[in-house]
Amino acid sequence: MAATPLPAKAVLLTDKPRGFSHPVWAARADRLQSVTGVILGLFLIVHLHFESSILLGKDAFYQVAQFLEGGIFSETGHGFPILTQIFSAFMLIVVLVHAVFALRRFPTQIGQWRALRQQMQFLPHEDTKIWFWQMISGFLLFFLVPVHLFAMMTNPEIGPHLSAERVVHQNAWMLYVLLLPAVTVHAIFGLYRVSVKWGLTTQRFAMLKLAKVILAYLMVLGVASLVAYIIIGRALSLPVVPFVPGL
Ligand code: HEM
């Protein structure tokens, strides 16, 4: 006996989009991913500049760290490391929200990876390549960023000597050598993609060129800062004494 085809209504009911495949939820998820991505990207640009104040000397970095820890509001002038802990926990939540909404785009099956590679060979468009590297760097950051944020929550001491001690004597340089390129590439190309996607610019090529210039600049700034921490850290005698301005 020939199989009776399902009535059209039943097919429609079983195919009903659910969760993030529903267009309204997919649009909301898209927006949340972009908003959290922009927050993180802009934060990184500011963060690398604050942190590079070490290039202006120990005193400059000390003042920046004290200011960010609310030094002017504390009696000792040394600020409140708990602010660093709270802010780090908040950033961890933003990172997790961003990652969860990004994960739904990750190719999970071998067939999807094959299709992506074929697409890249067939149409080697720069934006397809950027999307591919966004995915690889995003995957690495899923592991690297929480390590950095947990370190800041459990050991929130920041200063020219204390940071240099963390970088050299607690081997944080190993993390930063991977984190710096991965997060800079991911953040800057992410901001470029958001500006094109949401129609903030029509000058795609000019924007891409600008993104590459900013990327190179941030990498130079980050590497120079890391080298400065390493030079300071190697010159410290143990046990490390916190930096005191004017001494
Ligand atoms: C919100 C809490 C955060 C605090 C308090 C913080 C603090 C610091 C400090 C003080 C350093 C200098 C070295 C050290 O003391 O270990 C550093 C380095 C670094 N941070 Fe953060 N960070 C935070 C979040 C983040 C996030 C969310 C990212 C990435 C998205 C990030 C990326 C980096 C990178 C790449 C370096 C190394 C820079 C270089 O090599 O020059 N940080 N961070």
UniProtKB/TrEMBL annotation:
Keywords: Heme, Iron, Membrane, Metal-binding, Transmembrane, Transmembrane helix. SUPFAM superfamilies: Fumarate reductase respiratory complex transmembrane subunits. InterPro entries: Fum_red_B_TM, SQR/QFR_C/D, SuccDH_FuR_B_TM-su. The chain crosses the membrane at residues 32-50, 82-103, 130-153, 173-192, 213-232. It comes from the Bacteria. It is found in: Membrane. It holds the Pfam family Sdh_cyt. Signal peptide: none annotated. The keyword Iron applies. This is Fumarate reductase.
